[in-house]
Amino acid sequence: EVQLLESGGGLVQPGGSLRLSCAASGFTFINYAMSWVRQAPGKGLEWVSGISGGAGSTFYADSLKGRFTISRDNSKNTLYLRMNSLRAEDTAIYYCAKHLGYGVITPQELWGQGTLVTVSS
Amino acid sequence: IVLTQSPGTLSLSPGERATLSCRASQSVSGSYLAWYQQKPGQAPRLLIYDASSRATGIPDRFSGSGSGTDFTLTISRLEPEDFAVYYCQQYGSSPGTFGQGTKVEIK
């Protein structure tokens, strides 16, 4: 069974850091691009960052201004998102998503259940 | 690319036809446009990709059309489980942007 399991969310103070993880199983991880998409409480979807299957290409939403870093460890079938200088507006459910193909120019075919990040003092 | 979905809310009865619109601020490269369904407390689910291709396991009452800047998701006959929020997304240009969503509610 194809599965994505996010972890690492929680409560963090403004200016703090957090690293999210997404453990993938049931498919050949290296063959697929992966992304992080977030959803603030009661709001719509916002694409955050994407990475190609071989990790050669990474992409970010303009609004993040270098605060977030996406990476993957294909030997561990795990996707990561390092988030620095967190702000209240980063509060959201963060979803890990598997793309339909190797590159990020493909849709997000499968989504995890998400992990909640709350930025508050 | 900014995606604008309309209407914001669609109030319909089961069995009726639903037509959702997604308009892009500039042409979507390669018709790389997807539609997702999201129910309360659940992750989004891919319905349509490349503007008109149904994802695996999606019933044929869901169909997508369009190109350039204007795209449409049609649900031919609404089933009770179809009442949800629907998002369009373009993935042809980085960053991949989502529309603000259309809620399909029971009338």
Structure description:
The complex is a heterodimer of chains A (121) and B (107). Chain A is mainly beta and 121 residues long. Helices cover 0% and strands 50% of the residues of chain A. Chain A is globular and about 40 Å long. Chain A starts with a strand and ends with a strand. Chain B has no helices and eleven strands. The radius of gyration of chain B is 13 Å and the shape is globular. Chains A and B meet through strand 5 and strand 10 of A and strand 4, strand 5 and strand 10 of B.
Q: Give the beta-strand count of chain B.
A: 11
Order of helices and strands of chain A: EEEEEEEEEEE
The number of helices of chain B is 0
Structural class of chain B: mainly beta
Form type of chain A: globular
| Number of helical segments with 4 or more residues of chain A | 0
The SSE order of chain B reads: EEEEEEEEEEE
Unreliable parts of chain B:
none
Tell me the greatest interface: A-B, 24 and 24 residues
| Biggest beta-sheet profile of chain B | 7 strands, mixed
Rounded radius of gyration of chain A (Å): 13 Å
Radius of gyration of chain B: 13 Å
Distance between the termini of chain B: 33 Å
Annotate the secondary structure layout.
The complex is a heterodimer of chains A (121) and B (107).
Chain A: E1 3-7, E2 10-12, E3 18-25, E4 34-39, E5 45-51, E6 58-60, E7 68-73, E8 78-83, E9 92-99, E10 108-111, E11 115-119
Parallel strand pairs in A: 2-11
Antiparallel strand pairs in A: 1-3, 3-8, 4-5, 4-9, 5-6, 7-8, 9-10, 9-11
Chain B: E1 3-6, E2 9-12, E3 18-24, E4 33-38, E5 45-49, E6 53-54, E7 62-67, E8 70-75, E9 85-90, E10 97-98, E11 102-106
